[in-house]
From TrEMBL:
Molecular function in Gene Ontology: ATP binding; ligase activity, forming carbon-nitrogen bonds; zinc ion binding
Organism: Mangrovimicrobium sediminis
Keywords noted in UniProt: ATP-binding, Ligase, Metal-binding, Nucleotide-binding, Queuosine biosynthesis, Zinc
Binding site for Zn(2+): 190, 200, 203, 206
Cofactor requirements of the protein: Zn(2+)
Protein name: 7-cyano-7-deazaguanine synthase
Cofactor annotation remark: Binds 1 zinc ion per subunit.
Gene Ontology biological process terms, A to Z: tRNA queuosine(34) biosynthetic process
Catalytic activity: 7-carboxy-7-carbaguanine + NH4(+) + 2 ATP = 7-cyano-7-carbaguanine + 2 AMP + 2 diphosphate + 2 H(+)
Enzyme Commission identifier(s): 6.3.4.20
Lineage per the UniProt record: Bacteria, Pseudomonadati, Pseudomonadota, Gammaproteobacteria, Cellvibrionales
Enzymatic class: ligase
Entries under PANTHER family matching the protein: 7-CYANO-7-DEAZAGUANINE SYNTHASE (PTHR42914:SF1)
HAMAP family: QueC
């Protein structure tokens, strides 16, 4: 283990971040997984994050408590805003203001503590639902900032933000994960999953996930609420 480079992997418990964790492991990184209890609507994803981290052999799994629900502004953190169940134009109400910036900043801090020069995140510019913090320009800008704002960066230990899913469709992501042995039954992607992880089957995240499995020709292991 001591010979492996360390990496911090942002893990939400969903399909994309789980695939990224499998990719980082396959590339030889010692993986330190990081999740956030940020006041999100679906608590089931935190349990899923713990499951996938253990299943894929993390070194340590850390959950950081935040209260993004105290500022609201998103259907995922404010129960008075309904989760949309039809496609919408523009940036959807499921966008959580500054979420990836907050998450990456904390991941950056932990990476410095660990002596890790690599951070992995599962953002995707193809099936990204219009979120502005899932674009290549954003990742490049954050990486530049990270190398300006940290002791590691100033001392020449270049920090890299990896977003290996950036240009992949959901079907390509599922095929890649399947080849790496990912058990997607452990994951939860639904914006409004029940406490025991049953997916609604109607939200945008469920739609993208369902279509991805169909396009990949892979059996969808998702447990849907109301399914017989």
């Amino acid at each position: 283990m001591s010979d492996q480079p360390r990496a911090v992997i942002l893990v939400s418990g969903g399909l994309d971040s789980t695939t990224v964790l499998a990719m980082a492991r396959q590339q030889g990184y010692a993986c330190y997984t990081l999740s956030f209890d940020y006041g999100q609507r679906s608590r089931a994803e935190l349990l899923a994050a713990e499951r996938v981290s253990a299943a894929l052999g993390d070194v340590e799994h850390k959950v950081v408590k935040l209260n993004l629900d105290s500022i609201g502004g998103s259907a995922l953190t404010d129960h008075s805003i309904a989760v949309p169940e039809e496609a919408t134009e523009g940036i959807p109400v499921t966008y959580v203001p500054a979420r990836n910036t907050v998450f990456l900043s904390i991941a950056l801090g932990w990476a410095e503590v660990l002596g890790a020069q690599d951070i992995f995140i599962g953002v995707n510019a193809v099936d990204y639902s219009g979120y502005p913090d899932c674009r290549p320009a954003y990742i490049a800008a954050f990486e530049a900032m990270a190398n300006l704002a940290t002791r590691a960066g100033v001392e020449g230990e270049k920090l890299t933000i990896h977003a290996p899913l950036m240009d992949l469709g959901k079907d390509q992501i599922i095929r890649a994960g399947t080849e790496l042995g990912v058990d997607y039954a452990l994951t939860v992607s639904c914006y409004q999953a029940t406490e025991d992880g049953l997916a609604c089957g109607r939200c945008d995240s469920c739609r993208l996930r369902r279509e991805g499995f169909a396009d990949a020709g892979v059996t969808d292991p998702t447990r849907y609420a109301g399914a017989s």
